[in-house]
Structure formats: C-alpha cells, structure tokens
Amino acid sequence: MATTTATTLAASAGDGSSPPSRSTVTTIAAQAYHVLKINGYSNTLKAGCHYPLSTCPFSAGGHTWHVSYYPNGCRDSNKDCISTFLSLEGIVTEDRRTCWQKLHSACSIDTGTWARGFENFIRRDELERSEYLNDDYFAIAAHVIIPKEKPSVVVPPSNMHLHYGDLLVSKEGTDVKFLVGGEMFAAHRLVLAARSPVFKAELFRPTKKGTIDAIQIDNMEARVFKALLGFIYTDIWPEIGHGKDNVAMAQQLLAAADRYGLQRLKFVYEDKLCNHIDTCSVSTMLVLVEKHHCCKLKEACSTFLSSMSPPIVEDPNSSIFGSELEKTVSSSENHRSQINRTDIRIQPWQNADV
C-alpha cells in the first residue's frame, strides 16, 4: 500500500531551526521514494559548517528513516560542497543491522553510524550554475529499496500430523489393542502416553505380560473412541453440524476428552456446544457441566435460561410447577451394560394467569 506524506520545515537556518523545505514520501512494500524540496536555498547557507538540516521521518521496510542535508558540508575538507545522508533511526538491534546491511545504494560513504550518503554530493558553485537550482529552489530525491531475501529452498509446511495419521491407519508397529463397543482398535503405547496422562498411567503400570489381549473400554461408543484416537495422532478434531446426532457426538467427545485428560479437545467441544444450546439440549448440557466442570458451558446455559421469557424459576418450593424434566446422559453402544443416570429437574415458571 502506498503512503504519501507532506510536511513543511520553516524558519531560518541560522537560529537552530529547520530550513524551509517539503518532504514527500511514497512507500510501496519495502521501498520508499523520498523527495526533499529545498525552498530558500540561500537561506540554508546561514547554517554553520557541520550543521545538518533533517527532513521529517518516513517509513520503509518496517523502519524509520530521514535524510540529512548539510548545506556547508559535513567536514572542513568539503565545506564548499553539499553533503547528504540517509539515516536509519531507532535503537540498534540485530534486525536493524540486517536491514542496513541489505540496503542497496549507490552511496559512497558509510559514516560508521546508521547513516549512509555522500560527503561531496555536489559543489555549491556547480549547483548554483546548474539548471537544478531555479528561483532559489532545488530538490534531492532518495530512493530506498530494501529487498526481501528469498530463501534458496522453499520449506513446505509441517505435515507431521499426516505421518502420524498414516501410522494409525496402517497399524504398523502397534503394540496395544482396545475393545470398544464391539470393535477392536490397534494403537501405539508411546503415542498414547505422550498425548494423554491417563493413557500413560494405564498403559505403563506394572502388569503381567501375556495376560491381556485387549483393553476393554466401557461406556463409550466405538465412533467416539475412533475420533478420540484420530485427535491423539493428528491433533485434528471432527467438525459437528446442527443435527441432534452431531450434538450428541460432540457431548460424548467432550466427556471422553475429559476422561483421558485431553484438555485441548475438551475446550474445543465445550466452545462448540455453547453454540448448540436450546430448550431440548439445555438439561443435558447442565449434566455435562456438573460431571466435567465446564465453566464456559455453564455460563452459556445460565445465559440461555435467563434469556427465556418468562424466565425459568429454579425453586423447588414453588407452589405452582409442572412435571419434571429428566434427561439422561449415557452411552448407547451396549445396552446390556450398566447405565449411569443423572437426573436434572428444572422447575417451570410460575404462570400469573393460573
């Protein structure tokens, strides 16, 4: 994006202030074209030798620059010449040093500071005879170009998750099996232990070799465990839609993530479930809140309940209330297994018309 600025530097050169000049800057990417316009050249000669008159700052390549103009030279040896320098402002950092080293310029002098330019830019008598000086006016242009370093080799983005995903699918080198919902899953102990503190504790505790063919996991659907393994290996979670089955899947994944200490996955689905609260799901959400300590989901449920008109009264002593609302969060992969039920009762609002 191009940026253009213009300033006027007024007053006489002899009183320590800046000469009448204007600066125009056009910046595109990592380059800037800066034009210093000197209005009243003869007045600037009142500045003493070695006395610089600087332009307003301008930006290029993420750094700030200015042009210094010495109307009577910067040294005794070139007091009959005009000196000009491009200066890099700011504190010396490695980034600024690299920027300065990459600065391409036809400048002949590096002062040892953060300024580069020409001590003998032009003799004053030559300038005064030339066509460049017209009506006591002339201009100096500085084109700053900071090339972006192109890497010799384009480094592709990380695809580690793809390799681990292939490892899970291929089952190569697996050393542990799980029986979940009637389905068998093979995995790698080290991968599971590295990602889950619960798996680490379960898989590396002292056991007698050859006594366990497969670890059985109860109260979890096979599809949920498959998604859980996919996240452990690839750090990618399945997206959910707005259907009841998708929301139920997200609820079970949140519970599974909490069960195996996968906080990142838990937070992902807690955030997603905050956007799927309605009158049909709020009771189940509150069960999740209590069982798995979901603070954000609790806040979202409270906000939803308080926004209902008329609001719900959670008062067990209310004289007028309807039937209880009971919701059960349970696994459905094996109906013959024991089902843990949690009741939540929400008292309906008091009806003023009754």
Give the structure's gist in a few sentences.
30% of the residues lie in helices and 22% in strands. The protein is α+β, with helices and mostly antiparallel strands. Belongs to the Tdpoz family.
SSE blueprint and pairings:
Blueprint: E1 4-9, E2 21-28, E3 31-39, H1 41-44, E4 53-54, E5 58-60, E6 63-70, E7 81-88, H2 94-101, E8 109-110, E9 115-123, H3 124-129, E10 137-145, H4 160-170, E11 176-180, E12 183-187, H5 189-195, H6 197-203, E13 215-217, H7 222-234, H8 244-259, H9 263-273, H10 282-292, H11 295-307
Helix pairs in contact: 4-7, 5-6, 7-8, 8-9, 8-10, 10-11
Instruction: Give the percentage of residues in beta strands.
Output: 15-25%
Helix content: 25-40%
Protein structure class: alpha+beta
**What number is the mean pLDDT?**
75
Radius of gyration, whole Å: 37 Å
**What is the CATH superfamily classification of the largest domain?**
Potassium Channel Kv1.1, Chain A
Rough outline:
elongated
Q: Under CATH, the topology of the largest domain is which? A: Potassium Channel Kv1.1, Chain A
Q: What's the tally of helices?
A: 11
Span of the ends, CA to CA: 68 Å
The level 1 CATH classification of the largest domain is Alpha Beta
- Counting DSSP E segments of at least 2 residues, the number of strands comes to 13
How many structural domains does the protein architecture include? 2
State the CATH architecture of the largest domain: 2-Layer Sandwich
Order of helices and strands: EEEHEEEEHEEHEHEEHHEHHHHH
Q: Low-confidence parts lasting 5 or more residues at pLDDT below 50?
A: 1-21, 24-29, 102-112, 313-354
For the biggest sheet, the summary is: 6 strands, antiparallel
Family: Belongs to the Tdpoz family.
Pfam families: BACK_BPM_SPOP, BTB, MATH_2
GO biological process, one term: protein ubiquitination
Pathway: Protein modification; protein ubiquitination
